[in-house]
């Protein structure tokens, strides 16, 4: 735990010591990259610990042309990227993780620098919400980096073809990314208001409160029974701990807060962010029914890393703004310690050269 807490406070210190956004953002993202790239592979969700090592070893036995000649394979583009990295890394798995992590964190850093009104808050949110899950889900987060860096930009510019192409590329890395296609019609046709806020809260809570009833009904359908079993025993199981419920409550609170701040002056970008974030909350609420929705929600809820800073930047009173920042920092610190670390099984944290770690 000491490594995480030290790094988090170090990130905060960097932003206060170095006022230049580009430099402080770069250093902070590099710190998160270091934690991810140089971890022991046994840190993280048990079911996914050997995933990338198995893929890496499998790719070593294949030539490049055999990999690219199978475009219908799950995660085909990720396999191609992994093969290229495997060649560059000269067959060293640690170098593979270092390069793969660097790709994601480079994209994340550019996204935060380009769109965030407060890069420190963005880094805190990402660190405390998603960092541990990058340990075991680098393929999905590689897909997410495409959505952040390209799809969001095309969505704002209403470049339909470019948006579709970027989402398809993300989908070829991780098939769940295709769900982001719904972002275009939602953000193109809808304007955020209190009705949408009410609908989001109602639908997400309904999926959570009545999940057992819904699961019972869905279990009556034979072809869905396996998926329903995953909701109880899969690696994203939400019945073994209260992480799903706590996360949903947290997201709803932030949504209400953002809406109350922005309701009289919702900009074009804020409207898109509110819509995307709300869609993610709905998926989060229904993840107690269909467990894959837990990871699908990340494609949308991750935009909180720029939505929340945008809201705080619109508060004129500097004392209130500082007080809110302190509250957010403390809140996320406790959220990370008591929810994310147990769920992501991030303890004990070991660097790859250690036998025993902090």
TrEMBL record:
Record-linked Pfam families: EpsG
Keywords assigned by UniProt, alphabetized: Membrane, Transmembrane, Transmembrane helix
Keyword Nucleotide-binding: no
Transmembrane regions: 93-113, 125-154, 160-184, 196-224, 244-262, 271-290, 296-312, 324-341
Protein name per its UniProtKB record: Polysaccharide polymerase
High-level lineage: Bacteria, Bacillati, Actinomycetota, Actinomycetes, Bifidobacteriales
